[in-house]
Amino acid sequence: MSSLTETAFYTRRTINWTILGIIGYIFLRIFWSLAVTVYLTVFPPQAPPPNHAFGSLPAVAFPAPQASPSSQLIFQLQTIEGSVPVASSSANVYFMPKKGSNLLALSTAQAFAKRLGFTTTPVPEPSNKNIYRFDDQTNSLRHLWYDIVSTNFIIRYEFQQDPGLFLNSKVPSAVEARAEAKNMLQTYGLYPDDFNGGDVRVTYYKVAENSLIPVPSQSQGDAVRVDFYRPNIASTRVVTGTLSEGPISIVFSGSGNAKKRVLQFTYAYWPIDYSTVATYALKTSTQAWQELQSGGGYILQLPKTPLVTVRNVYLAYYDSVSPQTYLQPVFVFEGDDGFIAYVPAINQLPTE
After folding, report:
1. Cα–Cα distance between 206 and 215 in angstroms, integer?
2. What residue numbers bound the domain in which 168 lies?
3. Model pTM?
4. How many angstroms separate the CA atoms of 150 and 147, rounded?
5. Do both 292 and 320 map to the same domain?
6. pLDDT tens, 196-218?
7. Are residues 258 and 282 in the same domain?
């Protein structure tokens, strides 16, 4: 009996010490995490020293201006900090390789177009020798414009010429639209690996005077658009040159006819070589703010009045719809009434 009593005693003591050890380990992990957080807050890691390995960078490829220049506006700053927040002194710049033309480019385009139902002889666009137009022989309202060098493209269905298209149609739900769009990209080998984890946004539209205008719900919609965006790069957001459209977007009608299902398919993907990177010095956030006030930068959307109240300033990477050789950071200024503006962030070396 004494041996059983001793065994029970030592078993209970072992269990108690094990429980105390686990509790102690949990408290140590919590304490260590808090200590690391406090340390990084007080002593933030230094930005990597700039090496300017790519030399002088080309200007950021913003779209043609759609809004008035910022010099015609009056700015006031109302951020949480009470001033423009301090930004990092340097940032990475990534190389964006471009595809070159080759003898098989046109035949590759034709093969791709055929898979999408376009079998006519392609016609080169007068404004751009790299872009060819394909028409659908079975549906004259359906067209494809394909860039044989970049392999980017746009498909459009002229829904304005098809008044019965939206009658008795069933617009897919947000879940269905996301799944259909991603499946379409994967079916044609178009889904980029580096879009994994990025935002996928769904917007509903109704037809009004031969155009599509956004509406808040599926029940009010005649069509739905799915936009794909890149995920953050090294915890830094990636922004585009349009207010609401992603680099890859598909607009679906509620039609069951496959030729009428896609109203527009925009594919403007530019690959990034994440292994080929350089580090560049940045302007200060104060310099960027002064540049915006003096008429610099690019404005995506103007407020309703000339008085602009800026409430948020941060760094982001700019993903252009036009080809650019490098992925560069920009300062983003956000304000009331949907105001958004970009200012290039790289502090360029003086040219000799």
Report:
1. 7
2. 152-270
3. 0.82
4. 6
5. yes
6. 999 999 999 999 988 999 999 99
7. no
